[in-house]
Design a protein that fits this description.
The structure is a homodimer.
Chain A (H helix, E strand, L loop, with lengths): L1 E3 L2 H10 L7 E6 L5 H13 L2 E6 L19 H11 L3 E3 L3 H4 L6 E5 L8 H4 L3 H16 L3 E5 L3 H13 L5 E5 L19 H6 L2 H14 L8 H12 L5 E10 L15 E9 L2 E9 L2
Parallel strand pairs in A: 1-4, 2-3, 2-6, 3-4, 6-7
Antiparallel strand pairs in A: 8-9, 9-10
Helix pairs in contact in A: 6-7, 9-10
Protein backbone atom coordinates (compact mmCIF):
# COMPACT_ATOMS: atom_id res chain seq x y z
CA UNK A 1 0.00 0.00 0.00
CA UNK A 2 1.20 3.48 -0.87
CA UNK A 3 0.87 6.65 1.16
CA UNK A 4 0.56 9.54 -1.30
CA UNK A 5 0.54 13.15 -0.19
CA UNK A 6 0.35 15.13 -3.45
CA UNK A 7 -2.38 15.39 -6.03
CA UNK A 8 -0.05 15.11 -9.01
CA UNK A 9 1.56 11.97 -7.61
CA UNK A 10 -1.89 10.46 -7.01
CA UNK A 11 -2.98 11.18 -10.59
CA UNK A 12 0.26 9.61 -11.87
CA UNK A 13 -0.15 6.53 -9.71
CA UNK A 14 -3.77 6.01 -10.77
CA UNK A 15 -2.71 6.41 -14.40
CA UNK A 16 -0.02 3.74 -13.91
CA UNK A 17 -2.41 1.39 -12.16
CA UNK A 18 -4.54 1.50 -15.29
CA UNK A 19 -7.45 3.66 -14.22
CA UNK A 20 -9.86 3.65 -17.12
CA UNK A 21 -9.95 -0.11 -17.63
CA UNK A 22 -10.00 -0.70 -13.88
CA UNK A 23 -12.70 0.28 -11.41
CA UNK A 24 -11.67 2.74 -8.71
CA UNK A 25 -13.35 2.87 -5.30
CA UNK A 26 -12.86 5.90 -3.06
CA UNK A 27 -13.42 5.93 0.70
CA UNK A 28 -13.27 9.56 1.87
CA UNK A 29 -12.40 9.82 5.57
CA UNK A 30 -11.06 12.29 8.11
CA UNK A 31 -8.75 9.59 9.43
CA UNK A 32 -8.77 8.21 12.97
CA UNK A 33 -10.03 5.05 11.33
CA UNK A 34 -12.21 2.60 13.21
CA UNK A 35 -14.22 -0.50 12.28
CA UNK A 36 -16.87 1.71 10.65
CA UNK A 37 -14.35 3.03 8.15
CA UNK A 38 -12.80 -0.41 7.73
CA UNK A 39 -16.18 -1.85 6.75
CA UNK A 40 -16.31 0.76 3.96
CA UNK A 41 -12.79 -0.09 2.81
CA UNK A 42 -13.58 -3.80 2.76
CA UNK A 43 -16.71 -3.16 0.73
CA UNK A 44 -14.71 -1.02 -1.69
CA UNK A 45 -12.13 -3.84 -1.93
CA UNK A 46 -14.85 -6.33 -2.90
CA UNK A 47 -16.34 -4.10 -5.60
CA UNK A 48 -13.30 -2.44 -7.25
CA UNK A 49 -9.87 -3.06 -8.72
CA UNK A 50 -8.22 -0.07 -7.05
CA UNK A 51 -9.12 1.21 -3.58
CA UNK A 52 -8.18 4.75 -2.51
CA UNK A 53 -8.75 5.90 1.06
CA UNK A 54 -8.47 9.65 1.52
CA UNK A 55 -7.49 10.91 4.96
CA UNK A 56 -8.13 14.63 5.19
CA UNK A 57 -9.43 16.61 8.15
CA UNK A 58 -11.35 19.15 6.11
CA UNK A 59 -11.20 22.59 7.74
CA UNK A 60 -14.19 24.02 5.84
CA UNK A 61 -16.73 21.67 7.36
CA UNK A 62 -15.95 22.72 10.94
CA UNK A 63 -17.65 25.79 12.35
CA UNK A 64 -15.99 28.28 14.69
CA UNK A 65 -15.61 26.73 18.15
CA UNK A 66 -15.86 23.18 16.77
CA UNK A 67 -13.12 20.57 17.14
CA UNK A 68 -11.06 21.11 13.95
CA UNK A 69 -7.81 21.76 15.82
CA UNK A 70 -8.29 18.92 18.30
CA UNK A 71 -9.76 16.38 15.88
CA UNK A 72 -7.63 13.24 16.36
CA UNK A 73 -4.88 12.76 13.74
CA UNK A 74 -3.49 9.24 13.71
CA UNK A 75 -2.05 8.85 10.21
CA UNK A 76 0.46 6.12 10.93
CA UNK A 77 -2.11 3.87 12.53
CA UNK A 78 -4.64 4.77 9.82
CA UNK A 79 -2.24 3.47 7.17
CA UNK A 80 -1.80 0.17 9.00
CA UNK A 81 -5.56 -0.25 9.35
CA UNK A 82 -6.36 0.87 5.79
CA UNK A 83 -3.85 -1.63 4.41
CA UNK A 84 -5.25 -4.42 6.57
CA UNK A 85 -8.71 -3.74 5.15
CA UNK A 86 -7.44 -3.81 1.56
CA UNK A 87 -6.61 -0.24 0.55
CA UNK A 88 -4.11 0.25 -2.29
CA UNK A 89 -3.52 3.94 -1.64
CA UNK A 90 -3.94 6.26 1.32
CA UNK A 91 -4.23 9.80 -0.07
CA UNK A 92 -3.32 12.36 2.59
CA UNK A 93 -3.06 15.81 1.01
CA UNK A 94 -2.05 18.96 2.80
CA UNK A 95 -4.81 21.52 3.34
CA UNK A 96 -2.71 24.06 1.43
CA UNK A 97 -2.75 21.82 -1.64
CA UNK A 98 -6.51 21.43 -1.52
CA UNK A 99 -7.42 25.07 -0.77
CA UNK A 100 -5.56 28.08 -2.13
CA UNK A 101 -5.54 31.07 0.24
CA UNK A 102 -8.16 32.93 -1.85
CA UNK A 103 -10.33 29.88 -2.63
CA UNK A 104 -14.00 30.85 -2.72
CA UNK A 105 -15.62 28.17 -4.89
CA UNK A 106 -18.30 26.19 -3.10
CA UNK A 107 -20.55 23.32 -4.00
CA UNK A 108 -23.76 23.57 -2.05
CA UNK A 109 -26.98 21.65 -1.83
CA UNK A 110 -29.27 24.52 -0.98
CA UNK A 111 -32.48 24.36 0.98
CA UNK A 112 -33.99 22.73 4.04
CA UNK A 113 -32.18 19.43 3.40
CA UNK A 114 -28.86 20.92 4.59
CA UNK A 115 -30.37 23.13 7.30
CA UNK A 116 -32.45 20.60 9.15
CA UNK A 117 -31.06 18.04 11.67
CA UNK A 118 -27.28 18.58 12.00
CA UNK A 119 -27.48 21.57 9.66
CA UNK A 120 -29.46 23.51 12.25
CA UNK A 121 -26.55 23.69 14.70
CA UNK A 122 -23.82 23.39 12.02
CA UNK A 123 -24.91 25.90 9.35
CA UNK A 124 -21.76 25.72 7.15
CA UNK A 125 -21.06 22.04 7.69
CA UNK A 126 -22.68 20.51 4.63
CA UNK A 127 -21.39 23.17 2.26
CA UNK A 128 -17.91 22.23 3.48
CA UNK A 129 -18.67 18.53 3.00
CA UNK A 130 -20.10 18.80 -0.52
CA UNK A 131 -17.23 21.05 -1.58
CA UNK A 132 -14.48 18.71 -0.33
CA UNK A 133 -16.25 15.63 -1.68
CA UNK A 134 -16.51 17.33 -5.09
CA UNK A 135 -12.81 18.16 -4.97
CA UNK A 136 -11.88 14.59 -4.03
CA UNK A 137 -14.12 13.25 -6.80
CA UNK A 138 -12.36 15.55 -9.29
CA UNK A 139 -8.93 14.42 -8.12
CA UNK A 140 -9.60 10.67 -7.85
CA UNK A 141 -12.45 10.30 -10.37
CA UNK A 142 -13.72 7.15 -8.69
CA UNK A 143 -16.30 4.83 -10.18
CA UNK A 144 -17.75 4.28 -6.70
CA UNK A 145 -17.51 6.16 -3.42
CA UNK A 146 -18.31 4.81 0.04
CA UNK A 147 -20.01 6.57 2.94
CA UNK A 148 -21.35 5.39 6.28
CA UNK A 149 -25.03 5.40 7.19
CA UNK A 150 -23.87 6.78 10.56
CA UNK A 151 -23.80 10.20 8.85
CA UNK A 152 -27.23 9.66 7.35
CA UNK A 153 -27.86 13.28 6.41
CA UNK A 154 -24.45 13.51 4.75
CA UNK A 155 -25.24 10.45 2.65
CA UNK A 156 -28.59 11.90 1.55
CA UNK A 157 -27.01 15.26 0.72
CA UNK A 158 -24.15 13.67 -1.26
CA UNK A 159 -26.52 11.46 -3.23
CA UNK A 160 -28.55 14.56 -4.13
CA UNK A 161 -25.43 16.48 -5.14
CA UNK A 162 -24.19 13.63 -7.32
CA UNK A 163 -27.56 13.24 -9.00
CA UNK A 164 -28.07 16.95 -9.61
CA UNK A 165 -24.54 17.69 -10.84
CA UNK A 166 -24.65 14.53 -12.99
CA UNK A 167 -21.41 13.23 -11.46
CA UNK A 168 -20.72 9.75 -12.87
CA UNK A 169 -20.00 8.04 -9.56
CA UNK A 170 -22.00 5.39 -7.71
CA UNK A 171 -22.58 6.26 -4.06
CA UNK A 172 -22.50 3.20 -1.80
CA UNK A 173 -23.80 3.69 1.74
CA UNK A 174 -22.79 1.05 4.28
CA UNK A 175 -24.52 0.13 7.56
CA UNK A 176 -23.61 1.62 10.92
CA UNK A 177 -21.06 -0.42 12.87
CA UNK A 178 -21.75 -0.56 16.61
CA UNK A 179 -19.96 -1.46 19.82
CA UNK A 180 -21.24 -4.51 21.72
CA UNK A 181 -23.58 -2.32 23.79
CA UNK A 182 -24.99 -0.60 20.69
CA UNK A 183 -23.00 2.69 20.65
CA UNK A 184 -22.34 3.68 17.03
CA UNK A 185 -18.60 3.82 16.26
CA UNK A 186 -17.28 7.35 15.87
CA UNK A 187 -13.87 8.97 15.98
CA UNK A 188 -15.36 11.33 18.54
CA UNK A 189 -16.18 8.54 21.01
CA UNK A 190 -12.60 8.85 22.25
CA UNK A 191 -13.48 12.27 23.66
CA UNK A 192 -15.83 10.61 26.19
CA UNK A 193 -14.75 9.91 29.77
CA UNK A 194 -15.71 6.53 31.16
CA UNK A 195 -18.99 7.65 32.72
CA UNK A 196 -20.01 9.52 29.55
CA UNK A 197 -19.07 6.45 27.52
CA UNK A 198 -21.27 4.27 29.73
CA UNK A 199 -24.22 6.61 29.32
CA UNK A 200 -23.66 7.24 25.59
CA UNK A 201 -25.50 4.04 24.76
CA UNK A 202 -28.72 5.98 25.40
CA UNK A 203 -28.77 7.20 21.76
CA UNK A 204 -29.00 3.68 20.45
CA UNK A 205 -31.35 2.56 23.20
CA UNK A 206 -33.73 5.36 22.29
CA UNK A 207 -33.64 4.57 18.58
CA UNK A 208 -34.00 0.86 19.23
CA UNK A 209 -36.94 1.48 21.56
CA UNK A 210 -38.65 3.51 18.82
CA UNK A 211 -38.12 0.73 16.28
CA UNK A 212 -39.50 -1.84 18.72
CA UNK A 213 -42.48 0.34 19.54
CA UNK A 214 -43.27 0.74 15.84
CA UNK A 215 -42.85 -2.96 15.04
CA UNK A 216 -44.91 -3.99 18.10
CA UNK A 217 -47.96 -2.55 16.35
CA UNK A 218 -48.83 -0.58 19.51
CA UNK A 219 -51.28 2.32 19.38
CA UNK A 220 -49.47 5.45 18.12
CA UNK A 221 -46.55 3.42 16.75
CA UNK A 222 -46.64 5.17 13.37
CA UNK A 223 -46.96 8.62 14.90
CA UNK A 224 -43.59 10.44 14.76
CA UNK A 225 -44.47 12.56 17.80
CA UNK A 226 -45.14 9.47 19.89
CA UNK A 227 -41.92 7.81 18.65
CA UNK A 228 -39.88 10.93 19.42
CA UNK A 229 -41.27 10.77 22.93
CA UNK A 230 -40.14 7.14 23.25
CA UNK A 231 -36.62 8.12 22.16
CA UNK A 232 -36.60 11.15 24.42
CA UNK A 233 -37.54 9.11 27.47
CA UNK A 234 -34.68 6.68 26.89
CA UNK A 235 -32.14 9.45 26.38
CA UNK A 236 -33.29 11.30 29.45
CA UNK A 237 -32.44 8.26 31.56
CA UNK A 238 -28.80 9.35 31.10
CA UNK A 239 -28.27 12.40 33.28
CA UNK A 240 -25.14 13.53 31.36
CA UNK A 241 -26.93 13.53 27.99
CA UNK A 242 -28.07 16.89 26.61
CA UNK A 243 -30.43 16.44 23.69
CA UNK A 244 -29.72 18.59 20.60
CA UNK A 245 -32.40 17.13 18.37
CA UNK A 246 -34.60 14.10 18.00
CA UNK A 247 -36.26 13.98 14.58
CA UNK A 248 -38.22 11.57 12.48
CA UNK A 249 -38.15 12.49 8.81
CA UNK A 250 -38.58 11.06 5.35
CA UNK A 251 -35.44 8.98 4.76
CA UNK A 252 -34.89 10.40 1.27
CA UNK A 253 -35.98 14.02 1.45
CA UNK A 254 -35.39 14.57 5.20
CA UNK A 255 -38.73 16.35 5.32
CA UNK A 256 -40.77 16.09 8.55
CA UNK A 257 -43.34 13.32 8.59
CA UNK A 258 -46.82 13.39 10.05
CA UNK A 259 -47.19 9.66 9.83
CA UNK A 260 -44.96 6.70 9.03
CA UNK A 261 -46.46 5.02 6.00
CA UNK A 262 -46.02 1.53 4.66
CA UNK A 263 -43.31 1.35 2.00
CA UNK A 264 -41.89 4.76 2.89
CA UNK A 265 -38.84 4.38 5.10
CA UNK A 266 -38.44 7.00 7.80
CA UNK A 267 -35.20 8.14 9.37
CA UNK A 268 -35.10 8.54 13.14
CA UNK A 269 -32.07 10.68 13.89
CA UNK A 270 -30.65 12.07 17.11
CA UNK A 271 -27.86 14.35 18.23
CA UNK A 272 -26.86 14.42 21.87
CA UNK A 273 -24.10 16.21 23.71
CA UNK A 274 -22.00 14.81 26.52
CA UNK A 275 -20.10 17.84 27.76
CA UNK A 276 -18.29 19.20 24.69
CA UNK A 277 -18.70 15.96 22.78
CA UNK A 278 -21.47 15.82 20.21
CA UNK A 279 -22.69 12.37 19.19
CA UNK A 280 -25.14 11.45 16.46
CA UNK A 281 -26.95 8.24 15.63
CA UNK A 282 -29.90 7.10 13.54
CA UNK A 283 -32.03 4.18 12.53
CA UNK A 284 -34.31 3.49 9.57
CA UNK A 285 -37.91 2.88 10.58
CA UNK A 286 -40.22 0.84 8.36
CA UNK A 287 -43.93 0.50 8.98
CA UNK B 1 -21.91 14.92 -37.26
CA UNK B 2 -24.41 13.62 -34.73
CA UNK B 3 -27.14 15.54 -32.94
CA UNK B 4 -27.58 13.93 -29.52
CA UNK B 5 -30.34 14.94 -27.14
CA UNK B 6 -29.91 12.59 -24.18
CA UNK B 7 -27.16 12.29 -21.61
CA UNK B 8 -27.04 8.49 -21.70
CA UNK B 9 -26.75 8.48 -25.48
CA UNK B 10 -23.95 11.03 -25.30
CA UNK B 11 -22.02 8.92 -22.76
CA UNK B 12 -22.48 5.84 -24.95
CA UNK B 13 -21.34 7.68 -28.07
CA UNK B 14 -18.23 9.09 -26.33
CA UNK B 15 -17.43 5.58 -25.04
CA UNK B 16 -17.69 4.19 -28.56
CA UNK B 17 -15.55 6.96 -30.02
CA UNK B 18 -12.82 5.85 -27.63
CA UNK B 19 -12.87 8.58 -25.03
CA UNK B 20 -9.97 7.82 -22.71
CA UNK B 21 -7.33 7.32 -25.40
CA UNK B 22 -8.70 10.27 -27.38
CA UNK B 23 -8.77 13.92 -26.38
CA UNK B 24 -12.20 15.49 -26.07
CA UNK B 25 -12.81 19.20 -26.60
CA UNK B 26 -16.07 20.77 -25.37
CA UNK B 27 -17.49 24.05 -26.64
CA UNK B 28 -20.40 25.00 -24.34
CA UNK B 29 -22.86 27.37 -26.08
CA UNK B 30 -26.42 28.62 -25.80
CA UNK B 31 -26.80 28.11 -29.55
CA UNK B 32 -27.59 30.82 -32.09
CA UNK B 33 -24.06 30.20 -33.27
CA UNK B 34 -22.05 32.95 -34.95
CA UNK B 35 -18.44 33.34 -36.06
CA UNK B 36 -17.38 33.81 -32.42
CA UNK B 37 -18.61 30.32 -31.53
CA UNK B 38 -17.24 28.90 -34.77
CA UNK B 39 -13.76 30.17 -33.91
CA UNK B 40 -14.00 28.19 -30.65
CA UNK B 41 -15.14 25.06 -32.50
CA UNK B 42 -12.30 25.38 -35.02
CA UNK B 43 -9.79 25.77 -32.21
CA UNK B 44 -11.24 22.71 -30.48
CA UNK B 45 -11.01 20.80 -33.78
CA UNK B 46 -7.29 21.63 -34.06
CA UNK B 47 -6.49 20.55 -30.51
CA UNK B 48 -8.64 17.44 -29.94
CA UNK B 49 -9.74 14.13 -31.43
CA UNK B 50 -13.39 14.51 -30.55
CA UNK B 51 -15.26 17.85 -30.56
CA UNK B 52 -18.54 18.23 -28.68
CA UNK B 53 -20.58 21.43 -28.99
CA UNK B 54 -23.30 21.76 -26.39
CA UNK B 55 -26.32 23.88 -27.26
CA UNK B 56 -28.35 24.61 -24.16
CA UNK B 57 -30.14 27.80 -23.21
CA UNK B 58 -29.57 27.51 -19.49
CA UNK B 59 -32.56 28.82 -17.55
CA UNK B 60 -30.70 29.25 -14.25
CA UNK B 61 -28.35 31.94 -15.53
CA UNK B 62 -31.17 34.28 -16.54
CA UNK B 63 -32.68 36.56 -13.92
CA UNK B 64 -36.37 37.46 -13.71
CA UNK B 65 -37.23 39.88 -16.52
CA UNK B 66 -34.25 38.79 -18.62
CA UNK B 67 -34.50 37.28 -22.10
CA UNK B 68 -34.65 33.55 -21.33
CA UNK B 69 -37.96 33.01 -23.11
CA UNK B 70 -37.06 35.12 -26.13
CA UNK B 71 -33.41 34.05 -26.43
CA UNK B 72 -33.01 32.96 -30.08
CA UNK B 73 -33.21 29.19 -30.65
CA UNK B 74 -31.89 28.15 -34.05
CA UNK B 75 -30.91 24.52 -33.59
CA UNK B 76 -31.11 23.40 -37.19
CA UNK B 77 -28.85 26.18 -38.40
CA UNK B 78 -26.56 25.66 -35.40
CA UNK B 79 -26.01 22.04 -36.45
CA UNK B 80 -25.09 23.07 -40.00
CA UNK B 81 -22.64 25.68 -38.70
CA UNK B 82 -21.16 23.44 -35.99
CA UNK B 83 -20.54 20.69 -38.53
CA UNK B 84 -18.93 23.14 -40.95
CA UNK B 85 -16.52 24.21 -38.22
CA UNK B 86 -15.59 20.62 -37.38
CA UNK B 87 -17.87 19.44 -34.56
CA UNK B 88 -18.42 15.69 -34.19
CA UNK B 89 -21.37 15.98 -31.86
CA UNK B 90 -23.95 18.64 -31.06
CA UNK B 91 -25.32 17.88 -27.60
CA UNK B 92 -28.73 19.48 -27.12
CA UNK B 93 -30.30 18.23 -23.89
CA UNK B 94 -33.72 19.12 -22.64
CA UNK B 95 -33.84 21.37 -19.56
CA UNK B 96 -35.85 18.67 -17.77
CA UNK B 97 -32.98 16.20 -18.24
CA UNK B 98 -30.44 18.63 -16.82
CA UNK B 99 -32.50 19.92 -13.88
CA UNK B 100 -34.90 17.81 -11.84
CA UNK B 101 -37.88 19.76 -10.49
CA UNK B 102 -36.43 19.82 -6.95
CA UNK B 103 -32.80 20.46 -7.98
CA UNK B 104 -31.05 22.70 -5.47
CA UNK B 105 -27.35 21.91 -5.91
CA UNK B 106 -25.28 24.92 -6.93
CA UNK B 107 -21.66 25.50 -7.77
CA UNK B 108 -20.72 29.03 -6.86
CA UNK B 109 -17.60 31.14 -6.96
CA UNK B 110 -18.35 33.33 -3.99
CA UNK B 111 -17.15 36.86 -3.42
CA UNK B 112 -16.63 40.12 -5.25
CA UNK B 113 -15.41 38.36 -8.42
CA UNK B 114 -18.97 37.30 -9.29
CA UNK B 115 -20.67 40.43 -7.97
CA UNK B 116 -18.67 43.09 -9.74
CA UNK B 117 -19.12 44.08 -13.45
CA UNK B 118 -21.98 42.01 -14.92
CA UNK B 119 -22.62 40.41 -11.51
CA UNK B 120 -23.81 43.75 -10.14
CA UNK B 121 -26.89 43.86 -12.39
CA UNK B 122 -27.16 40.07 -12.78
CA UNK B 123 -26.80 38.74 -9.21
CA UNK B 124 -27.62 35.07 -9.91
CA UNK B 125 -26.03 34.89 -13.36
CA UNK B 126 -22.62 33.46 -12.52
CA UNK B 127 -23.98 30.92 -10.07
CA UNK B 128 -26.14 29.66 -12.94
CA UNK B 129 -23.15 29.62 -15.27
CA UNK B 130 -20.77 27.76 -12.95
CA UNK B 131 -23.47 25.23 -12.10
CA UNK B 132 -24.32 24.41 -15.72
CA UNK B 133 -20.66 24.34 -16.75
CA UNK B 134 -19.94 21.89 -13.89
CA UNK B 135 -22.84 19.73 -15.02
CA UNK B 136 -21.64 19.75 -18.63
CA UNK B 137 -18.11 18.90 -17.49
CA UNK B 138 -19.47 15.96 -15.50
CA UNK B 139 -21.47 14.69 -18.46
CA UNK B 140 -18.85 15.18 -21.20
CA UNK B 141 -15.64 14.97 -19.11
CA UNK B 142 -13.68 16.96 -21.67
CA UNK B 143 -9.90 17.32 -21.67
CA UNK B 144 -10.27 20.91 -22.85
CA UNK B 145 -13.14 23.40 -22.84
CA UNK B 146 -13.42 26.54 -24.95
CA UNK B 147 -14.80 29.93 -23.97
CA UNK B 148 -14.80 33.33 -25.65
CA UNK B 149 -12.94 36.34 -24.28
CA UNK B 150 -16.10 38.28 -25.13
CA UNK B 151 -17.48 37.05 -21.80
CA UNK B 152 -14.28 37.99 -19.99
CA UNK B 153 -15.71 37.79 -16.48
CA UNK B 154 -17.22 34.38 -17.21
CA UNK B 155 -13.81 33.12 -18.38
CA UNK B 156 -12.11 34.39 -15.21
CA UNK B 157 -14.80 32.87 -12.99
CA UNK B 158 -14.69 29.51 -14.75
CA UNK B 159 -10.89 29.35 -14.55
CA UNK B 160 -11.13 30.03 -10.82
CA UNK B 161 -13.81 27.39 -10.36
CA UNK B 162 -11.78 24.79 -12.28
CA UNK B 163 -8.63 25.56 -10.30
CA UNK B 164 -10.34 25.54 -6.92
CA UNK B 165 -12.44 22.42 -7.49
CA UNK B 166 -9.39 20.67 -9.03
CA UNK B 167 -11.34 19.80 -12.18
CA UNK B 168 -8.95 18.13 -14.63
CA UNK B 169 -9.86 20.22 -17.68
CA UNK B 170 -7.84 22.80 -19.56
CA UNK B 171 -9.72 26.05 -20.13
CA UNK B 172 -8.93 27.65 -23.50
CA UNK B 173 -10.08 31.25 -23.96
CA UNK B 174 -10.26 32.51 -27.55
CA UNK B 175 -10.15 36.12 -28.80
CA UNK B 176 -13.22 38.22 -29.46
CA UNK B 177 -14.47 38.06 -33.05
CA UNK B 178 -15.72 41.42 -34.36
CA UNK B 179 -17.78 42.77 -37.24
CA UNK B 180 -15.97 44.94 -39.81
CA UNK B 181 -16.81 48.10 -37.85
CA UNK B 182 -15.58 46.62 -34.56
CA UNK B 183 -18.83 45.47 -32.91
CA UNK B 184 -18.17 42.27 -30.95
CA UNK B 185 -20.23 39.35 -32.28
CA UNK B 186 -23.07 38.36 -29.98
CA UNK B 187 -26.28 36.39 -30.36
CA UNK B 188 -28.02 39.41 -28.86
CA UNK B 189 -26.92 41.74 -31.69
CA UNK B 190 -29.93 40.51 -33.63
CA UNK B 191 -32.18 42.28 -31.12
CA UNK B 192 -30.86 45.66 -32.36
CA UNK B 193 -32.77 47.75 -34.89
CA UNK B 194 -30.72 49.32 -37.67
CA UNK B 195 -30.10 52.62 -35.89
CA UNK B 196 -29.13 50.82 -32.65
CA UNK B 197 -26.86 48.55 -34.66
CA UNK B 198 -25.17 51.55 -36.24
CA UNK B 199 -24.57 53.17 -32.85
CA UNK B 200 -23.56 49.92 -31.08
CA UNK B 201 -20.03 50.29 -32.39
CA UNK B 202 -19.52 52.86 -29.62
CA UNK B 203 -18.54 50.12 -27.14
CA UNK B 204 -15.60 49.08 -29.26
CA UNK B 205 -14.73 52.66 -30.18
CA UNK B 206 -14.53 53.55 -26.50
CA UNK B 207 -12.37 50.56 -25.62
CA UNK B 208 -10.15 51.14 -28.63
CA UNK B 209 -9.77 54.82 -27.73
CA UNK B 210 -8.68 53.83 -24.21
CA UNK B 211 -6.09 51.40 -25.57
CA UNK B 212 -4.76 54.06 -27.95
CA UNK B 213 -4.66 56.65 -25.19
CA UNK B 214 -2.66 54.26 -22.99
CA UNK B 215 -0.24 53.24 -25.75
CA UNK B 216 0.27 56.86 -26.84
CA UNK B 217 2.09 57.46 -23.57
CA UNK B 218 -0.05 60.54 -22.93
CA UNK B 219 -0.25 62.09 -19.45
CA UNK B 220 -2.74 60.10 -17.34
CA UNK B 221 -2.70 57.15 -19.74
CA UNK B 222 -2.14 54.61 -16.93
CA UNK B 223 -4.81 56.14 -14.71
CA UNK B 224 -7.99 54.03 -14.81
CA UNK B 225 -10.19 57.01 -13.99
CA UNK B 226 -8.82 58.94 -16.96
CA UNK B 227 -9.23 55.91 -19.24
CA UNK B 228 -12.81 55.36 -18.09
CA UNK B 229 -13.48 58.97 -19.00
CA UNK B 230 -12.08 58.36 -22.50
CA UNK B 231 -14.39 55.36 -22.93
CA UNK B 232 -17.34 57.23 -21.50
CA UNK B 233 -16.93 60.13 -23.91
CA UNK B 234 -16.92 57.77 -26.90
CA UNK B 235 -19.99 55.89 -25.72
CA UNK B 236 -21.86 59.11 -24.99
CA UNK B 237 -21.50 60.11 -28.63
CA UNK B 238 -24.23 57.51 -29.30
CA UNK B 239 -27.50 59.00 -28.06
CA UNK B 240 -29.26 55.60 -27.86
CA UNK B 241 -26.55 54.09 -25.63
CA UNK B 242 -27.30 53.85 -21.90
CA UNK B 243 -24.16 53.02 -19.94
CA UNK B 244 -24.52 50.26 -17.32
CA UNK B 245 -20.86 50.12 -16.29
CA UNK B 246 -17.42 51.10 -17.47
CA UNK B 247 -14.70 49.46 -15.39
CA UNK B 248 -10.98 48.93 -15.48
CA UNK B 249 -9.89 46.05 -13.29
CA UNK B 250 -7.10 43.56 -12.77
CA UNK B 251 -7.50 41.05 -15.62
CA UNK B 252 -7.09 38.04 -13.33
CA UNK B 253 -8.74 39.01 -10.07
CA UNK B 254 -11.22 41.60 -11.46
CA UNK B 255 -10.30 43.84 -8.54
CA UNK B 256 -10.37 47.61 -9.13
CA UNK B 257 -7.04 49.15 -10.11
CA UNK B 258 -5.60 52.47 -9.04
CA UNK B 259 -2.94 52.37 -11.68
CA UNK B 260 -2.10 50.24 -14.72
CA UNK B 261 1.30 48.74 -14.06
CA UNK B 262 3.83 47.27 -16.45
CA UNK B 263 3.50 43.51 -16.76
CA UNK B 264 0.06 43.47 -15.13
CA UNK B 265 -2.65 43.27 -17.78
CA UNK B 266 -5.81 45.23 -17.02
CA UNK B 267 -9.29 44.49 -18.30
CA UNK B 268 -11.36 47.39 -19.58
CA UNK B 269 -14.96 46.16 -19.64
CA UNK B 270 -18.20 47.86 -20.54
CA UNK B 271 -21.90 47.06 -20.52
CA UNK B 272 -24.28 49.29 -22.44
CA UNK B 273 -28.00 49.09 -23.09
CA UNK B 274 -29.76 49.94 -26.32
CA UNK B 275 -33.42 49.83 -25.35
CA UNK B 276 -33.97 46.36 -23.87
CA UNK B 277 -30.80 44.98 -25.42
CA UNK B 278 -27.76 44.68 -23.16
CA UNK B 279 -24.38 44.53 -24.90
CA UNK B 280 -20.98 43.89 -23.34
CA UNK B 281 -17.45 44.25 -24.67
CA UNK B 282 -13.91 44.39 -23.32
CA UNK B 283 -10.28 44.83 -24.18
CA UNK B 284 -7.04 43.89 -22.43
CA UNK B 285 -4.89 46.93 -21.63
CA UNK B 286 -1.13 46.53 -21.23
CA UNK B 287 1.11 49.30 -20.00
Amino acid sequence: MKLIESESELRRELEQLGKGEHRVGLVPTMGCLHEGHLSLIRKARQQNDIVVVSVFVNPTQFGPGEDYASYPRTLENDCVLAESAGADIVFHPDAAEIYSPDASTKVEVEGEITHTLCGASRPIHFKGVTTIVSILFNIVRPDRAYFGQKDAQQAVVIRKMVRELHIPVEIVVCPIVREADGLALSSRNRYLNSEERRQAVCLYRGLDAAASFLSSGAEGGTDPERLKQVICEEIDKSPLAKREYIEIVDAETLKPLRHIEKGHPALAAVAVRFGETRLIDNIILRS
